[in-house]
Design brief:
The protein contains ten helices and eight strands. By secondary structure, it is of the alpha/beta class. It has one domain: TIM Barrel (Alpha-Beta Barrel), CATH 3.20.20.140. The two termini are 27 Å apart.
Length: 264
Amino acid sequence: MDFHISQGMIDTHFHASVMEGKGMNTVLVLRQAVNSGLAGGIDIGLTPSDFLGRKRLLKDFPSILLSAGCYPSETERADTDSLLSELEKLLEAENPSALGEIGLDWHWDYGSRKQQKDLFAGQIALANKYNLPVLIHNREADADIIDILTAVPPKAGGILHCFSSPYETARKIVDSGLYISFAGNLTYKKNDSLRIAASKLPLDRIVLETDSPYLSPQKRRGKPNHPGHIGYTYEVLAEVLKIEMEDLIIRVDRNFRKLFNSGF
């Protein structure tokens, strides 16, 4: 299995259990990634019921944080109150490092838009109650995401993951106090507009991710993604920002630790 990673890199968003479900030996992949330089990261929850399995899977990786949350598709499984109650019980019992992946998806239109909005806003309120940063999914819902973040500001901050919107949206997100995360789509040949957006943002508000097993970077498109590929996105961002790789690694690490108060 191929790796492209340097010492000190951080992957702020990947899905270990989904990687496992696609046939990867996730523990082996992560062990190799850590040995190759992965300094830390976050394994992302999609439903409260996935948390304990992910916790067992990653028990030997103290540098990997775990989030918990209800992805927009959960609106098709239960009503909002039930989902929030289920999630709060998990927060009480397990004390995850972040609340996510939460947000809005107007591409697939899971449930109804009202259900998605209510679940998103309700989860931010829970994050505020438990002083947790939020990890936000946004697909074709820029205006509504910003409206909800304005109405219910995340008190402990958070990340808009896998950014793919115009610069104007990024600017509003950053001005609200959140971080922007770029994934493998930053490396795609035809994504000049995304690279332009990245070039205009303050570096102290940028983090990076793989979104594994999704969004393989340009040089590995068509192959399953994993955290050992994070270096491809670092490489492109360093070129976009015209800074040395070592400097970028230090700055992203600083941003990550500031948001999560993490000393691993």
